[in-house]
Amino acid sequence: MNTGYSFFLGCIMPNRYPAIESATRFVLERLGINVQEMERAGCCPAPGVFRSFNKPDWMVAAARNIAIAEANGSPLLTVCNGCFGTLFDVNHALKHDEELRKKVNEKLEKLGYHVKADGEVRHIAQVLGFDIGPSGIQQYLKRKVKLKAAIHYGCHFLRPFHLKQIDDPEDPRILEDYFEALGVESLNYRGRLLCCGAGGGVKGAHAEESMKMLLEKMEGIAESGAEAILDICPFCHLQFDGGQKILNEKYGTDFHIPVIHISQLTAFCMGENEIGMKYQVIAPEFRLEVRNPD
Amino acid sequence: MIIAFACENCAQGSANTAGVLRMKYDHRIKIVRVPCAGRVGPRQIIEALNNGADSVAIIGCCFGACHYNDGNLITLRRVKAMKRMFEELGFDPDMVNMYTARAAEGDTIVGDFEDMSAKTDAMLSKEVSNE
Amino acid sequence: MFVCHCGENIAGKLDVEEVAEFAAGLPNVEFSTDNLFMCSKQGVELLKEAVRRHKLNRTVVASCSVEQHWPTFARAVEEMGLNPHMHEQVNIREWVSWVTNDWDNATEKAKSAVAAGVKMAALKEPIETQKLDVVKKVMVIGAGVAGLRAAMDLAELGIPVVLVEKEPSIGGHMTMLNKTFPTDECPMCTLSPLLNGVANHPDIEILTLSEVSKVEGSVGNFVVEVTTKPRYVHDNCTSCGRCSEVCPVEFPNEWDMGFGMRKAIYKPYPQAIPSTFTRDKKHCIECGLCEIVCPVQAVDFSMKKEKREFNVGAIVVATGYEQYDPVEITAYHYDHPNIITQLELERMLAPTTLTKGKILRPSDGKVPESVVIIQCVGSRNDQVGNAYCTGVCCMYALKNAGIIKEHLPNTDVYICYIDIRAPGLYYEEYYKKAQEKGIIFIRGRPSNIEPDPYEEKLTVFVEDTFTGEPVEIEADMVILSAGMIAPKGFGKLGGKLGLLRAKEGFAKEYHIKMGPMRSSREGVLLAGTIQGPRDITKTVAHAGAAASAAAQILVKGFLEKRLDTAIVDKDLCIKCLACSTVCNPGAIDVDVDGYAFVNDTACKSCGTCAGACPTGAIQIRNFRDAQLKEEVIGLLEYNRLVGAAQ
Amino acid sequence: MSSSSFPNPVRVLRRGERDEEIIKALKNEGFDINACMQCGTCTASCLSGRWTALTVRKVMRKAALGDSSVLESSDIWMCTTCYNCYDRCPRDLKVTDAIIVLRNLASARGFIHKNHRKVVQILAKTGHAVPINDKIQQVRKELGLPKIPPTLAKYPEERELLAKTLFQLAPEEGDEQ
Ligand SMILES: Cc1cc2nc3c(=O)[nH]c(=O)nc-3n(C[C@H](O)[C@H](O)[C@H](O)COP(=O)(O)OP(=O)(O)OC[C@H]3O[C@@H](n4cnc5c(N)ncnc54)[C@H](O)[C@@H]3O)c2cc1C
Ligand SMILES: Cc1cc2nc3c(=O)[nH]c(=O)nc-3n(C[C@H](O)[C@H](O)[C@H](O)COP(=O)(O)OP(=O)(O)OC[C@H]3O[C@@H](n4cnc5c(N)ncnc54)[C@H](O)[C@@H]3O)c2cc1C
Ligand code: SF4
Ligand code: SF4
Ligand code: SF4
Ligand code: SF4
Ligand code: SF4
Ligand code: SF4
Ligand code: SF4
Ligand code: SF4
Predict the structure, then answer these.
(1) What is the rounded radius of gyration, in angstroms, for the C-alpha atoms of chain D?
(2) CA C223 vs CA A169, C130, C137, C160, C599: distances in Å
(3) Fewer beta carbons under 10 A from the terminal one: N or C of chain B?
C-alpha cells in the first residue's frame, strides 16, 4: 500500500484533545501505516480566522506546512476538517496556478521553505472510509460497539464540492457506511448536515451566536435519541464537548451526549481501551459498550 | 494606408450607415469588400502589407451574429495567430487587427476606424523613433 | 468607367471630373465619363449606349453602394447581353465623399477606389445561375404538436409528407398534459382534430417506432434512410384490447410517468394514434397468450426491423424537448417519493392513472395539506449548465397550483420563485388570477428540501426575499418545475443532419431574428421546442413558419442557385481538408481521390474555406485571392497605374 | 441639504459615493457580483442566518452596490464558512469566498474583533491558534505522547521569524464592536 503519511497535528488536537492524537497513532500503527512527524509544522492556519485577515499570508503559512510534508516525501494526513480545508484548498490552488505558486514561493523562501504542490492532502476519514473501507477494516477489528449515534460530517470535509469531490455533500454515505461497519447504528436526525456553528472565526469572536447555532444542531441530535455524537474534526469536537456544557448553563438545556472522533472509535474497536473519554468535558464517565462480533 | 476588409453584412452595412450619417474618418482607410470576415486569410493580410499597407484590419459582424455562423470567430483566431507570428518575427502585432461592427450603427465602424488610425499612428511613430 | 456626381452628394466633396480623367488613363479603360445622376433614366441610357458604341465587355460605375445601385446597372448590362456580374460597382459616396472632410484627400481616395475597381473589373468572371430540380416531398422528424402542425400545413399545400416518430404513438408531450394554460382547456380536445387529420391525410405517411438512420444529399434532394422497429402487431389490429387483457406482465407506463400501469402488449393511452397495439419485446415473457386470443391474428412475433429510403426536398426537425432530470440537484432529493416533477403531476391529474386524477401523496395516498412548488429547477442555473429561462414553467406552475387549489381548497399551495415570467397577452392576467386563488407566493429559491427523519413530511428551506427572512415550509408534497432541455439523443440525429447545435444542446437557428425556423443547413427547418423551450402557442406558430419555409423551397419545383460558390483547383489541393473543417454548412465533401470537392447547392459563398486553405487551392468566384490582390494593389498604388499599359 | 432631521434617511445613490474598492477587490478575485440575481438560495442555506443578522443575499447586494456599510457591520463575521451557499448558488458565485474577500478588506481597514486580534497574538507567541497548557502537557504524558508536540510549540526561534513575516494586522482603527 502506501509508504506512509506525514502526520499533521494542527492545534486543537495536540493541545486540547491529545487523546485523538494518541488514538490516531494507534490506528495508523495497527493498519501498518508508517507515520512521519512533521517537525516545525504550525497552525494550518485556521480557515475562518486567518484567511479572513490576509489571504496571501494565509496561503504562505499553509504552504509552509505543505512544504514540510513534501520534504518528508509522503502525503500529508490531517484528522481535522479545518486543517483539511486549509491545506487541501491551498495545495489545490498552488497545484493549478503556477503564477500563484511563484508568488507564494517568493515569500516562503524567505522562511527557508519551497513548495512544489505535487503531493496530496488527505483526511483520516478518507483513509478509513475509502482506502481501507468498511469491509477492509474488518480484519483489524477486535470488537464492535453497541451504539446509536448521530454522525456529524462538519463542513470542510465535503465542501466545496467541486474541489473535494469526496461524496455528495447533500446526502453523503461515507461515514455512515464506515461507522456501521464498526457496529454503530447511525441515526438520521434533523439537521444532520448542518454546521456545528464554530467555524469561520464565529466561535472565537461571537460566542453567543455560535452557541445558538449549536443549540439547533444539538436539539436535532437529542431528539434522535443518540447515545453519542461521532465526528471527524477536533474543532467540531471542541464545539460539541465544551459547547454542551455552556448550553446547559446558559439555556437550561440538559445535554449529556458524549462526542467521539473517528480515530477514537476506530482505536477502541481495534482493542485500545484508553481513548481519553475521561478527559472530555461532557460525559467523562462514558464507557463504550461492546457488542458481540458478528 | 490602411486596408480594411469588410464583410458584406454588418461591416459594409455599418460603413454605409456611417456614410449616410456623414460621419467623418481617416481618409487613409480603404475598404475592400469580402463576403464574410472568414474570407480573409493570411495570404490577403500579407499581400496587403507587402504592397504598401501600413496596417490591415478585418471587420465582421458581432460575435455570435455572423451570417455564416462563425466566420468572424475563425478569422479572429487567424488574426491572433498572425499577431503572435508578427511578434515572433519582430514586427508590430498591431499590423493586423480584427474588429466587429453593427450595420445599423455607423459609429461602431467609425469607432473601429478610429482605433485603426490610432494604432497605425502609434506604430508608425515607433518605427520612426527606432530608426 | 462612369463617375457619378449624385448631384452635390459626390461632386460637392471631390473633383469628379478629375477622377473621370484619371480613370481614362488607367489600363484597360476604353471609355470614361462623368454624369450628374447615373441611376436616372438618362444615366442608365448613357451606360447602355457606351456599351453598345465602344463594345465594352465590362463596366465600372463609381457612385453609391453596391446595395443601392449595383442591381440597377447590372440589369442594364444584362439587357445589353453581358453577364450581370461583369459590372463592377465602386462606392465613392458612402465610403468617400460623405466621410472625408478634405477635398483633395477625397479626390485622391476616390481615384484609388476607381483604380481598384478597374483592376477588379478586368478579372471579373461571369457567374451562372443553376436551376436545380427539387423533390416535392418533405420529411418531418418528430410528431409532437410541432411536427403534426408542420406536416398538416405542408400536406394542405399539396406537398406529400413522411412523418417519422420514434415512439409507438404520435402527439408528443402535449398528449401527456392535463390542461393547457392560459385557457385551461383539455389538450386532447384541442389536439385531437389535428391528430386525426394527420392520421387520415392522404398525403401524410406516418412511420412510428422509427428513427432517421442516415442522411445524404442536400437541399432539394435529400436521401434519408429511416429504420423502423418492429411493432409485432400488424395494422389489421382492431384495437379491441383482448391481448392486453390476457397479458400477464404489468409494470409502470412510461407515458404516465409511472403514475399508471400498462401490459407488455399495450397502447400508451386509449386515444393513442395509430390505434394499433404494440408489443414491448423487452418486458414480454413470450407466453404467447396474446397471439392466441387475438381475433384477427394481428400479433406476429416474427416481425423484423425494417430500413427504408426516402427521397425528400426538405426536412423539418421537430423532435421536441425533454424534461430536466432534477436528480442532478441533490439538495432537492428528487429520489424521494413525495417529490415529483410537474410533468408527473400532469399525469397524476389524469383520470386514467393510479390515483384516478386525485392529488394524493405518492408515499401513502394521503391528501396533501401543504404543497410546495419550486420554480427554476434546472433552468436559470449555471451550475447545471442551463443558464437560460425555460419560459414555460412559471406558466404551468400557475396552472397546476390553481388546479390543486380547485381540487383541494383547504390545502396550502406555495410557489417559491425567483421571478414570475408571464409575458404577453393573457399571461399576466393568468398570473393575477392565480394570485386571487390564494396561492402563497414566496419570492426566493429554496436551497434544499429535507425529508423529515420521523414523519412523512418534507421541509423546504427558502428565504422570503421580500421580508429578508429565512423560512421553513412544512410540506406533504413538493413539485419541481423542472425546465425543458434538448432531447438527450439529439446530438446523434443532429450529427447525421449536419446541424449546428447551441451549447445548451438545442438546434441552432440560422438567425435568431430573421430565421428562427431555419437551421444552419439549407433545406433543414426547425419546428417547435427543438430550437429552444417554448409553449404550445409559440410551438405551433413556429411550426407553421417552418412549414412555409420548407414549402418556399419546393413549390416552384426548382431552385435557383447563383454559382458564385467555392471551387477547388485539384492541382494545388493537398487533401488536408482544412477547408472542410471551417465550412459551416458542410458544403465540402471529399471526392473519390481524396480531394476537397464543393457541393454547389450547399455552399453559401462565404469564402471561409479560402481563408483556411494553405495552398490557395480553394477559391470563391469573384473573390479569388488573385482578384482581391489586384483590388488591394489598385487601392494602394493607384497613382503608379496611370498609363502603365500604354 | 441635511438629512439629519430624519432618523433613518433614505439612501441616496449618487455618483462617486460607491466604494469602488469593494467592487475592485471582488473583481480581482474573479467575482462578478453583479451576476447575483438575488434569489436567496444562499440565505436559505445559511445556518448562521437563522440565528444572526447575517443575510447573505443582502451582503451580496450591498457589495454589488459598493455599500461600505457591509464592511463595518459584524454580519460578514457571522459566517461559519460552511460553504453551503457556495455549493448551491445557481449563478455559480463563490459566495463564501466573496465573504472572505470582504473580510480581508474589512481587516485592512482595521475592522477586526478584539478576540480575533487575540488569536493572532497567540499564534505569534505560540505558533498555534490554540496553545498548549500545563494541564494538557500532563494529559499528553499520561497518554504516552511527548509533553510538547514536535510542532512550532517546540521551536521558539522559528515562531519569531513567522510572527515577524506573517499576519501583520492593521491598527485598531474602527474596531469592530
Ligand atoms: C409540465 C409541463 C406542462 C406544460 N403545460 C403547458 C401548457 O399548459 N400550455 C402550453 O402551451 N404549453 C405547456 N407545456 C409546453 C408544451 O409541452 C410544449 O410547448 C410542446 O409540447 C412542445 O411540442 P413539440 O412538438 O415541440 O415537442 P414534443 O411534444 O416533445 O414532441 C417531440 C416529438 O418528437 C419525438 N422525437 C424525439 N426525438 C426523436 C427522434 N430522434 N426521431 C423521431 N422522433 C423523435 C418525440 O417522441 C415526440 O413525439 C408544458 C410543458 C411541461 C413540461
Ligand atoms: C422600445 C422597443 C424595443 C424593442 N426591441 C426589440 C429587440 O431588441 N428585439 C426584439 O426582438 N424585438 C424588439 N422589440 C419588438 C419589435 O419591435 C416587434 O416585435 C416588431 O417590430 C413587430 O413587428 P410587426 O411587423 O409585427 O409590427 P410593426 O413593426 O408595428 O409593423 C406594423 C406595420 O403596419 C403598419 N400599419 C399599421 N396599421 C396599418 C393599417 N391600418 N394599414 C396599413 N398599414 C398599417 C404600420 O405603419 C407598420 O409599418 C422592441 C419594441 C419596442 C417598443
Ligand atoms: S447612382 Fe447612386 S450616387 Fe449616382 S445619382 Fe444615383 S444614388 Fe446618387
Ligand atoms: S392485436 Fe388483436 S387482440 Fe390486440 S388489440 Fe389488436 S386486434 Fe385486438
Ligand atoms: S407473449 Fe408477451 S405480450 Fe403476449 S401475453 Fe405474453 S407477456 Fe403479454
Ligand atoms: S419560466 Fe419561470 S420557472 Fe421557468 S426558468 Fe423561467 S423563471 Fe424559472
Ligand atoms: S484546404 Fe485547400 S489544400 Fe486543403 S483540402 Fe481544402 S482545398 Fe485542398
Ligand atoms: S465558401 Fe463558405 S460555404 Fe462555400 S464551401 Fe467555402 S466555407 Fe463552405
Ligand atoms: S444564491 Fe447566488 S445568485 Fe442567489 S442570491 Fe445568493 S449569491 Fe445571489
Ligand atoms: S458559508 Fe457562511 S454565509 Fe454561506 S451558508 Fe455557510 S455560514 Fe452562511
Answers:
(1) 21
(2) 51, 21, 11, 15, 15
(3) C
3-state DSSP assignment of residue C437: coil
pLDDT tens, position by position, A110-120: 999 999 999 99
Residue C527: pLDDT band (50, 70, 90) is: very high
Protein fold of A133-291: Rossmann fold (3.40.50)
Domains of chain D: 13-108 (1.10.1060.10), 114-165 (no CATH)
CA separation for the pair A242, B27 (Å, rounded)? 80
Q: Do A125 and A177 form a contact (C-beta atoms < 8 A)?
A: no
Closest CA to C214 of C311, C112, C145: C311
pLDDT at residue C646, rounded to an integer:
38
What nine digits make up the cell of C199? 392520421
Alpha helical stretches, state H, B1-130:
10-20, 42-50, 71-89, 106-130
* Spatial separation of the C-alpha atoms in residues A62 and A44, rounded to whole Å: 6
Nearest CA distance, A183 vs chain D (angstrom): 26
Kindly list the residues from chain B whose CB atom is less than 8 angstroms away from the CB atom of residue C584.
Answer: 68-71
What one-character-per-residue DSSP string does A31-47 give?
TT--EEE-TT------T
User: Would you call D64 an interface residue with chain A, using a CB distance cutoff of 8 Å?
Assistant: no
Report the alpha-carbon distance of residue A198 to residue D96 in Å, rounded.
15
Q: Using one digit for the tens of pLDDT, what is the confidence trace for C73-116? A: 999 999 999 999 999 999 999 999 999 999 999 999 999 999 99
Residue type, C594: G
D166 membership: H or E segment, kind and range: none
Closest CA to A200 of A99, A16, A50: A50
DSSP assignment of C11-31 equals: HTTS-HHHHHHHHHTSTT---
C53, C21 contact by CB (below 8 A): no
Quick check: C463 contacting D, CB < 8 Å?
yes
Banded model confidence at residue C525, pLDDT cuts 50, 70, 90? very high
Residues C204-238: tens digit of each pLDDT:
999 999 999 999 888 899 999 999 999 999 999 99
A120 phi, psi to nearest 5 deg: -120, 155
Q: Using a 6 Å CB cutoff, which residues line ligand 6? A: C 375-376, 379-380, 389-394, 418-419, 421, 481, 483
d(CA C602, CA C593): 21
Binary contact (A190, C450; C-beta < 8 A): yes
- List the 3-42 stretch of D: residues with Cβ below 8 A of A: none
Residues comprising chain B, all counted: 131
Q: For residue A242, name the pLDDT band (cuts at 50, 70, 90).
A: very high
Quote the CA–CA distance of D47 and A239 in Å, as a whole number.
15
Query: What's the pLDDT tens digit per position in C151-205?
Result: 999 999 999 999 999 999 999 999 999 999 999 999 999 999 999 999 999 999 9
Task: Enumerate the residues of chain C whose CB falls inside 8 A of the CB of residue B44.
Answer: 611, 625, 628-629, 632
CB contact under 8 A, B40 and C611: yes
Amino acid identity, position A280: Q
Residue C241, Cα to own-chain centre: how many angstroms? 40
CA distances from B120 to B1, C185, C236, D140 (A): 9, 66, 79, 75
Contacts of C611 in chain B (CB under 8 A): 38-42, 44, 74-75, 78
What are the sequence ranges of the domains in chain A? 4-123, 133-291
pTM across the whole model? 0.83
Q: Where are the alpha helices (DSSP H) in C379-460?
A: 393-407, 427-436
Which chain B residues contact residue C628 at CB under 8 A? Answer: 32, 34, 44, 47
Q: Which ligand is nearest to the CA of C243?
A: 4
**Predicted complex ipTM:** 0.84
- The CATH number of A4-123 is 1.20.1050.140
For atom 35 of ligand 1, the residue with the nearest CA is C142
